[in-house]
Design a protein that fits this description.
single chain, alpha/beta, 4-stranded parallel sheet
């Protein structure tokens, strides 16, 4: 894997210069920028998403907590959420709760460390939001979707898209 450090070593430019060139900063010589960008392209450089997340305090990851992944309705919702997330540059981290409130609480506490930007909880439990106190979620934007097994696929898709847009507003 090509890193900034490796590009620096191979080209002789400082890591700072490499970073500025790859981020298209204007305080760097145009010829230097071109050399570095071409080298990065040739060596298939990909920015480290974890390093970017540390710098920006944004992981671009949404946690999804579902009761079970082997249920057709949940799978359909995951599919639609993934499509929305990908379009907006987000990745998903998936957890199964098996409809246990204690497990959902545990996951929400665990991911409330900055490793994800938000959480979506799919559940059949009508009172889940009341059962899980705000202290468990602190600054983690969390949306609870109460599942109704009678929902049509169209309603699911529409609901997922709307939900995801609302969640993005909470993140930014």
């Amino acid at each position: 894997m090509t890193t900034l450090k490796k590009i620096s070593h191979l080209t002789g430019f400082s890591i700072s210069t490499i970073s500025k060139a790859l981020n298209d900063k204007h305080d760097i010589n145009v010829d230097t920028k071109k050399i570095i960008q071409e080298f990065a392209l040739k060596t298939d450089y990909k920015p480290n998403k974890n390093a970017l997340a540390l710098r920006s305090s944004k992981s671009s990851i949404i946690a999804i907590i579902v009761p079970r992944i082997n249920n057709a309705l949940y799978s359909e919702m995951l599919y639609d959420i993934q499509k929305c997330a990908s379009k907006k540059g987000y990745r998903m981290m998936l957890f199964q709760s098996f409809e246990e409130v204690a497990t959902i609480k545990h996951y929400l506490e665990d991911i409330n460390d900055g490793s994800v930007d938000a959480a979506i909880v799919l559940t059949i439990n009508k009172n889940i939001e009341n059962e899980i106190s705000l202290s468990k979620r602190r600054n983690l934007p969390t949306v609870f979707i109460q599942i109704n097994h009678e929902q049509s696929n169209f309603n699911i898709k529409e609901s997922c898209a709307e939900l995801f847009e609302n969640l993005l507003k909470q993140i930014n």
